[in-house]
């Protein structure tokens, strides 16, 4: 089980809601040399309200305390000269700016929503992310490496009442073989001709590249932004795409057609900044005909029959037949790539973590069963034909040491991290100057040490 320990970052939202103009600002908390303003607290309260997020307690108590905890970390980070990667900060800023622009629709709408210039929003977000990363690094420095023995995990397990043990959801391990139906030359030629037509329209001034992207690009997310990808480094793009994009120098010209595993693209440069680039693209994906789907299904039907007759193993089929490059060298075994999952990096999946077509097939299978061929959309948004084998299933159950040692160990590590940070905060309270204005200290604080007796 993963549990990220972090403080409540007020800065992440402080610029998202503009405080009412008729509120007279004032300093309500002072922590060390840093002030907490009433307007900051009010902005955060309004943001949480708009987002439908609930706080466990009075927001005028919870929010400033969480801000104060953050300032303790930041003050210590200054003393310890904690540094974070500027490159990572910039990358995170650009990801967030691209996300917000995509959600709202355009840069102009973003500026209207926040009532600030796009560049100002970026700089404020940059400061916020820097503080986030400094605090997280400070926490890692304080915690250090937690070393647990099996005895520590056993002790935790034995101390818990049976009805308090965590529920481990049903997980499965799945092997897969996929075939990609062939794309006809006629389809490929027609698609390339269409992209060349788009290029001619842009070069002749008939149409804007961004308009064509909105109308026709099959990268639906970037299409909403006129094909704009946002600033990114070369390493974040597919090599064949990056090589062409980074060779562009004239924003008025369109690239040659680029083929990637997602389909066919044309690219237009927007701006270069050092080792990062912002570009637009239009993606068209080849369409698979019913005939080609049927031919691929017949091939997998034959493979399915051979597997049932045990002419060769599923592992051999995955290694020598499957088109899925992510699983082919892993004997067909799928690996969980969901960063938010407790099972990340392992072959274990909860049902909802599987692609929906696979989850539906696997749900009623027994361990060792092999499915008949079915069609699905892979992560490149291509229609493929697949068969799967249920390698293992662990039903939902209360955690136990024999089956769930790693999950229990993660819980114990998380509790240990929480305890270490909790102890540090209480210690810092005693040695840090804190002043709380009248009317703001009558709270049931999580850390009562703010108010000195």
List the defining traits of the structure above.
disordered N terminus, 13 strands, 453 residues, alpha+beta, 15 helices
Short summary:
With 453 residues, this protein is α+β, with helices and mostly antiparallel strands.
Question: What is the overall silhouette?
Answer: flat
Rg result: 27 Å
Order of helices and strands: EEHHHHHHEEHHHEHEEEHHHEHEEEHE
Strand order of the largest sheet: 9-4-11-10
Spans of at least 5 consecutive residues with low confidence: 1-23
Structural class: alpha+beta
Termini gap: 40 Å
Arithmetic mean of pLDDT: 88
| Structure annotation, total helices | 15
Share of residues in strands: 15-25%
Q: State the total count of DSSP E strands.
A: 13
Main sheet makeup: 4 strands, antiparallel
Helix content: 40-55%
Which SSEs are present, and which pair or pack?
Elements: E1 27-31, E2 34-37, H1 38-51, H2 59-80, H3 86-104, H4 107-114, H5 118-143, H6 150-159, E3 167-168, E4 171-179, H7 185-203, H8 209-216, H9 220-223, E5 232-233, H10 239-245, E6 258-260, E7 263-273, E8 276-284, H11 290-308, H12 314-320, H13 325-328, E9 349-350, H14 356-362, E10 374-377, E11 383-394, E12 397-398, H15 401-431, E13 434-436
Helix pairs in contact: 1-2, 2-5, 3-5, 6-15
Describe the structure.
With 453 residues, this protein is α+β, with helices and mostly antiparallel strands. 45% of the residues lie in helices and 15% in strands. The protein contains 15 helices and 13 strands. It has helices at 38-51, 59-80, 86-104, 107-114, 118-143, 150-159, 185-203, 209-216, 220-223, 239-245, 290-308, 314-320, 325-328, 356-362, 401-431; strands at residues 27-31, 34-37, 167-168, 171-179, 232-233, 258-260, 263-273, 276-284, 349-350, 374-377, 383-394, 397-398, 434-436. The strands form four sheets. Strands 9-4-11-10 form a four-stranded antiparallel sheet. It has a four-stranded antiparallel sheet with strand order 5-8-7-6. A three-stranded antiparallel sheet has the order 2-1-13. A hairpin with a 5-residue loop joins strand 10 (374-377) and strand 11. Helix 2 packs across helix 5 (118-143) and helix 6 (150-159) crosses helix 15. The longest helix has 31 residues, at 401-431. It is flat, with a radius of gyration of 27 Å. Mean pLDDT is 88; it is low at 1-23.
